[in-house]
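Memo to structure team: turn this sequence into C-alpha cells by end of day. - J.P.
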Amino acid sequence: MRPPVVALLGLGEAGSRLAADLEAAGADVRGYDPDGEAGADLPGRKSEPGTAVAGAEIVLSVNSGRAALGAATAARPALRPGVLYADLNTAPPELKRELAALVEPARFADVALLGPVPSRGLGTPALASGAGAHAFADSLRSLGMPVEVVSGTPGDAATFKLLRSVFMKGLAAAAIESLDAAEAAGHAEWLRGEIAGVIGQPFLDRLLEGSRRHAARRVDELEAAQALLVELGIEPRIASATAALLTDLGKARAR
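Reply from structure team:
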C-alpha cells in the first residue's frame, strides 16, 4: 500500500516531533514553517506552504491559535477538494468554525491534543470533531495516534480542550504559587514532596516545567478559555487568575 502524503504546516517543537514520528510510521512527510530555522533537517521541507500542501492527502496545521488562520489562508489555494485539513492548534471554537469554512471543499477536522506533543509525539491522545473527524481518526490511528471522535461539528473538540485547560493549567498555577510561597518560607522541599505524593513527581515536573517554558502560548489558551466560560455564563475566576500568573511567568522568562 502506498504511504499517505502528509503535509505539516508548522515545524516547531510539536510539528518537528510529529514529522519525525510520521516518517518513522511510513508516511511521506512534507513540511513548511514560517521560521526559516524550524524543521531545517526535515527531508521534505519546502520553501513555501503551497509547495508543501500540493499533492498532500492530509494537511496538519501545528502552529498556534494566533497563526492558524494565516496558515490556512496560505495553504488554501493548493488544497484539492476532498483533502483532509486538520487544525491541531488550541484555539477558540469560533476560530475553528471559521477555518472549516475557509478550507472548503477540503474536509476539515478540529483536533485537540491532550498532552505534551514534544515528549509524546504520535502517542499524544487527541479529540476530533468536524466533517473530517472520522477521516482524521482513521488515518492517524493507523499511524499510531489515539484519536476519539467527539462530534461532526467543528469547534466541539476545541471546546472540550478549553474546558480541560481550566483545570490542567489551573492545577499547574496552584502548584507554582504554593511552591513559590514554600520557597519563601524555607519549606520548598517538604511541600514538593507532599504534592508529588499526591500527583506523582513526573506529573509535577511536567506542570512546573511546561508552565514556565510555554507561558506565553498558554496565556492565549487561557484567554480563549475565559471567553468560553463567559459565553457559558460561568465567571472565569480560576482561568483569569491562571492567565495572570502565566503572564508574569512569560515576562520573567523574557527578561
